[in-house]
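sorry for the late reply, my laptop died twice this morning and i had to redo everyting from scratch. anyway the thing you sent over, i finally got around to it. pasting the sequence first so we're on the same page, its 345 residues, then the predicted structure underneath. double check i copied it right bc i was rushing
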Amino acid sequence: MTEVCKVDPLEPDRIIIRKAAEIIKKGGLVAFPTETVYGLGADALNRGAVRRIYAAKGRPVDNPLIVHVADKDQIYRLAKKIPKQAEDLIRKFFPGPITIVLEKNEVVPDETTAGLHTVAIRMPSHRIALALIKESGTPIAAPSANKAGRPSPTKAQHVVEDLNGEVDLIIDGGATEVGLESTVIDLTVKPPQILRPGGITIEMLREVCGRFRIHPAVSHQMSEKEVAKSPGMKYRHYAPKASLTVIVGKEDDVQGKIAELIRHFNSKGLKIGVATTTDKKYRTDYLENLGESKEEIARSLFDVFRKFDNAGVDVILAEGVDEEGLGLAIMNRLKKASGYKIIEV
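ok and here's the structure:
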């Protein structure tokens, strides 16, 4: 059994933070909350510790990690150079739910970057995360604290479900605020490229960066031969155990299609869960309301997937959202989780 320590997210207990930092310093693994999701942390500059992350998650070794820092000095230690656009993004959005990809310095081991010449860096805004990084005295590599491919953890209990006995300590700081992983932007190419959408939206980035591209992997499956410069690009991610189908279109059409699919799956004797963003009452075994605003949907999405898992449903039908603002990140997660099973009506 992995020890779980509850910590006030507003006033982190120094004794527990110090205990967790000692584990990091010794090459151990600590799961901790950020404003996005819970991270599985290890010393980013310790090859052996980073290998433990991959082993605990069952993560493909060509899937790079994000390195979390607590101050700008650590960014300069990790990156060869900080271009002006990076400086602008750091000034505007750090600390916060955004990751920048830069040319890496030699101090960063290949294990952390999956052998790439780039490193993905972010500064979380969560007080527990920042306190842990500062106390550890080293940048912390931290992918989401779940088994590879599973829904990301937004509560400590989700980490326990996936990694109990495989990490040294779990810090329980309550539910995360954003609920989706950070936005990732690659600044080693011109124009910059969005590799993964997140809490910092395209519209917000446009005010700072001006022109940029969106990587095709945001909306479409990458091939096995393509190289992923960020987590969340190449493999199936965020997926519940049940088969997930996403239905998008006008509200009435979406609701009608879901009702039709419910009848179809009922005829096969399957247990059905529906994730809705409206007050529509579907005739189904399990109904979960994700929320009406995109912020609510983002916070609840992965938790709802895990609720369906615990209920043992066979099929999940989810209402999609438009891709404006935070909707792009929500639909990215739904597409990846469903294996791109999208029905447009």
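The domain at 3-218 is CATH 3.90.870.10 (DHBP synthase).
thats about all i looked at so far, will dig more tmrw
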